[in-house]
Target: Cation:proton antiporter
Amino acid sequence: MIESFNFVLRLAIWFLLTAELSAINILFGVAVALLLPQPRRRRVMIRDWLKVLGEIAIAIPKAYIEAFELILFPHTQEEITMERVKPNRTPGLIFLDIFLITFTPKTIVSQYHQRGWYEVHRVKRKTRK
Model:
């Protein structure tokens, strides 16, 4: 089951990169998704994948809200924070976590540290004193 999640994730990334749904591109995308090396087998729980997909569904309206906030109110403050990677994450789930953080307009992952940390750049509204 997890192998099919990895296949679908790879194919989705292919389509996002190429932005084309022609028959030949679909064929190439399937070939690339199948030929890429498979990750080492780790125990992955379906509930972890479902939880991340639920978080993505929540991130979509949050991204629109943040975009309107950026348009209406100036965000002149910046900060870089370190966020810990959730325990027992596979590379596919780490990718989705990074995608989730970067999807919203106010945050972007500037670096992933192999020791289990994300370096996150955020913009914030100027705080009044």
